[in-house]
C-alpha cells in the first residue's frame, strides 16, 4: 500500500512541476514600443516576426533563458536572453534593452 501511495505522490509531483513551466509557444504582442509588432512561436520550432505590413519567417530554439532566432535569408542567427515575468515574455535585445510581450 505504501508503494501505491508513493507512486501516486511521485506522479502528481511530476505533473505539478511540468505543468507550471512557462511556454514560449504562441503569439506575443510587443508592449514596449510605439510600433506594433508580434512574434509567433509555433510548436514545430518555426516562427514569424510581424511589423506593420511586413512578415519575416524564421526558426527558433528556446532553452534555459537563451533564445536563438534564425530568420530566413540571414546567415547568422540572432541570440537573445529571455525570461517570463508573470504572464509576460521579456526578450533582452542586443543593446541590453528589455522588450516586453503579452500573449494573445
Domain tally: 1
Instruction: Report the sheet-strand fraction.
Output: over 45%
Looking at how many chains there are and whether they match, the oligomeric state comes to single chain
CATH topology: Lipocalin
Give a written overview of the molecule.
This protein has 104 residues and is an alpha+beta fold. The chain has one domain: Lipocalin, CATH 2.40.128. It is built from one helix and eight strands, in the order αββββββββ. The protein has one helix at 2-19, and strands at 26-30, 37-41, 46-51, 54-63, 66-71, 78-85, 88-92, 98-103. The protein has an eight-stranded antiparallel beta barrel. The radius of gyration is 18 Å and the shape is globular. The N and C termini lie far apart (46 Å). Mean pLDDT is 84; it is low at 4-19.
Sum this structure up briefly.
This protein is an alpha+beta fold and 104 residues long. The protein contains 1 helix and 8 strands; from the N terminus they run αββββββββ. The longest helix is centred in the first third of the chain and has 18 residues.
